[in-house]
Specification:
Layout lengths: L2 H24 L2 E2 L9 E3 L23 H4 L5 H8 L4 E3 L2 H7 L7 E3 L1 H7 L4 E6 L10 H13 L4 E6 L3 H13 L2 E7 H6 L1 H9 L3 E5 L5 H9 L7 H13 L4 E3 L6 H6 L2 H12 L6 E5 L4 H15 L5 E7 L4 H4 L1 E6 L8 E6 L21 H8 L4 E5 L1 H15 L5 H19 L5 E6 L7 H8 L10 H8 L10
Parallel strand pairs: 5-15, 6-7, 6-9, 7-8, 10-11, 10-15, 11-14
Antiparallel strand pairs: 1-4, 2-3, 4-5, 12-13
Bound molecules: pyridoxal-5'-phosphate (PLP).
Length: 478
Amino acid sequence: MDSEAARTRLTFYARAVQQTRALAASQTKFLLEESQLPRRWYNIRSDMPRAPPRVLHPGTGKPVGPDDLAPLFPMELIGQEVSEEAEIAIPEEVLEIYRLWRPTPLYRASRLEAAIGTRSRIFYKYEGVSPPGSHKPNTAVAQAFYNKQEGRTRLSTETGAGQWGSALAFACKLIGLECKVYMVRVSYEQKPFRRSLIEAWAAEVVSSPSEDTQSGRAIREEHPDSPGSLGIAISEAVEDAAGRDDTAYSLGSVLNHVLLHQTVIGQEALAQMELADAFPDVVIGCVGGGSNFAGLAFPFMREKIAGREIDVLACEPAACPTLTRGLFAYDFGDTSKLTPLVAMHTLGHDFVPAPIHAGGLRYHGVAPLISQLVRDGLIRAEAYLQNDVFASAVLFAGSEGILPAPEAAHAIHGTLQVAKAADQAGEERTILFNLSGHGHFDMAAYDNYFAGKLEDVALDEDEMSRALHAIEGLPSPA
Ligand SMILES: Cc1ncc(COP(=O)(O)O)c(C=O)c1O
């Protein structure tokens, strides 16, 4: 090729790249084809600089083995819980159900950017398009599938916000399993239509603490007005499953395999950011047990661990500040001490968070994988008050249109803080956050906010010290 032809070709190429970039800059939604759905889950354990401490049997203090977990979980999930393989294939039957709503859209939040006058670019991955309205079915479908495959006919679970309970009810209905949901009392009362949705998918739902289990009855006797908590509801669901051969327990967050299943979110987002000709400087998510945050962040952390600079921010409520103020310690996953001991950031297993409206973030612990990454300085965390979070939610709804779940609104609030700090420093950031669910069943919370009735609760120092007494005497992580 002579040099003139080469120059012409290069000019054409440069123009095409510029056009693609200009198009991407003015585009709102970045969509993938169904055929681009990830076919593997990403397992961050294979890349972590330091492995999390082993899970311990509370009786013996020794690491738990598959036989200890078999009464509660199918073998395939137990295998995934301890796997160090970098990638795990998603079964075709699970992909088939994922296709009902996946791949989910990635949006450029141009209207939000304009509303706050930021120089930064803001993107969000929207998981609220699933039938139950959040990221939760990404793991619910997988868990129901493996349980059915291994012969279980019934699942028991807890739910905080009602999002997880409805996701598991949905998955069980489509896959053909019975389902019982222990719904944290305060959410049971705040969200009657989440209950109806759970029942529409043919699951049974009771208010927790309930009369149906020994753990529930004991807590009701001691604290008749208990608003319930995820820790209490987990005790009830574990007890239910441990007492019946036909039933397995299913957890909506915290465990390694749950976080693994959520990584379809971040893998899609990586491809979609490429379509947008962008890469995030900051990745943000809200954290209850940690599954939606991990789902978005872990595939980006793979790049971070490999040397790319990314600020990864976890957002939590000031009423339940597990990562920002909790201890990294061995603790039980539930209130009645029925689960194995896991090393994680915790506020103590009998801590009952104030009844704030982000019910899905009212958990005393956080996923061990996230806790270890925070401990190693790869993830940072911030805690926010609920009136500030709702103000950001309303600002978002007024610019982008979507009314967020109160949990997801923590990630929006975190995003606005990062954009503001960047503007003040005269910097420009590319921010990506996870909009983990919509808030259509959370209207009572919005009503309270509009009526000025939301209390700002930051966890009291005395209550925190009291609750942390519960872990005295338990083993310490190395
Ligand atoms: C919409 C939404 N986002 C986030 C969460 C928090 O859970 P996780 O930290 O496991 O994503 C919940 C929990 O119920 C939820 O419903």
